[in-house]
């Protein structure tokens, strides 16, 4: 998926319309939409996966680790045709495949079930290793985590391993809405840099900056993109 | 005789050479034994370091790409420490793996309770869809490992230093309960994995039927039902398991839900022993040596 016929403004309007189908609200607090722009640019301009290739071995993988507040994710999946728009109004209901945390076995295009924090990045490490072991060196693996989610020790295990082994098909998108309770000395970027990652820090609302960060070369190192958005409680 | 863990290392090393679909994931434990495999297959033999949550997550991620992962460390660090990863990264994702645990309930008593996992099978019992193999001999361990590595499901292979003198072909084939000794009216004694030799010694000369299985989940309800038969009186069943006492009591009760029965679950005590020493001393302390078993079984069984 490389192009869109929508302008950024039109795309944003359409995504907000799709999200409103789930929440019934035209407006959302910053936290609910914190991932929206970062996800859209990723799906619209970077990830090489379509509804037709959602099961293809050579597809790029996107793993939503931060499964909380997945409305933006579902809206993007609907906009790109992975799930029908008609599913959105049933969000969270008994008969709906769309839960308040996603389930990979219920939603086309969803790579992992998530909700419990700290699982996506280790799964992404295994996914990147599994693709490499099969000679699939082209697909890239992306995983989205929240800044507070980085508190989970499992993520630290994955960050240290991926950096130490130079797992350069692995990409982490950290959506930073300043929701962690305890500030990380040196900030999020320092944590990844210390572990040997390549790091880009950008305005998480700036589509051009996001795209530039997503596509920045990082030979021999995994890439972390820290996308800063409005503080959760602002 | 080599140990189950030795056999696991040699067999997995060969399997990695033969089957490009297989991968091995380690967290330092058994690294030295696997040095040739790590050297020969850098893409499929992976040591993540001392990181057990990552160990399970990595195995599950490999499985999501179509690889068959064999994931190994001590049982305490494989099942108990990263239990939520076992539950979610494998179960909830619908991914499979072969988890191979070493250490069992008291393989290294001098190491103390930190390296004991008597609750591993009971913990996995809270999850759906797990096959649990408790081999009683290295040959059984090898056969069960080979069949598990050829599948796609979720398998736990529980290796131990405790072993029976001889392998049982039916157990190696992954069968449920098979009759090792036939009694007339006495209790049905179920021996799981490496306790069989002690159970056979304990029931020598008693009127008891002895069943054996190295595969305890799924629980062979049909096999147990067939063994208790229809003797016109309540069935007496004794379960002897080398892990937490009573782990399979509920399964046995479910199997006999429409048959009058009594069940005695023998195994490792829940109370922490806080002793070091040797494995044999722990087996005796938990009442799992032949003499203690005979005493427990005769006290439980009614005179025929």
Automatic annotation (TrEMBL), chain A:
Please give the superkingdom of this protein's source: Bacteria
Q: Which organism is it from?
A: Streptomyces genisteinicus
Q: Which InterPro entries match?
A: THDP-binding, Transketolase_N
Pfam families attached here? Transketolase_N
Q: Write out the entry's keywords from A to Z.
A: Thiamine pyrophosphate
Cofactor(s) required for function per UniProt: thiamine diphosphate
Q: Which SUPFAM superfamilies match?
A: Thiamin diphosphate-binding fold (THDP-binding)
**Domain Transketolase N-terminal residues, every copy:** 28-215
Extract one GO molecular function annotation from the record.
Answer: magnesium ion binding
This chain belongs to the protein called Transketolase
Spell out the family assignment given in the record's similarity comment: Belongs to the transketolase family.
Asked if Membrane is a keyword of the record, the answer is: no
From TrEMBL, chain B:
For this protein, the record's CDD domains field holds:
TPP_PYR_DXS_TK_like
User: Gene3D superfamilies this protein is in?
Assistant: 3.40.50.920, 3.40.50.970
Task: Specify the superkingdom.
Answer: Bacteria
Domain Transketolase-like pyrimidine-binding spans what residues? Answer: 2-167
User: Signal sequence span per UniProt?
Assistant: none
Q: Which SUPFAM superfamilies match?
A: Thiamin diphosphate-binding fold (THDP-binding) (SSF52518), TK C-terminal domain-like (SSF52922)
**Which Pfam family name is an example for this entry?**
Transket_pyr
One MF term from GO for this chain?
magnesium ion binding
Protein name (database record): Transketolase
Lineage of the species this protein comes from? Bacteria, Bacillati, Actinomycetota, Actinomycetes, Kitasatosporales
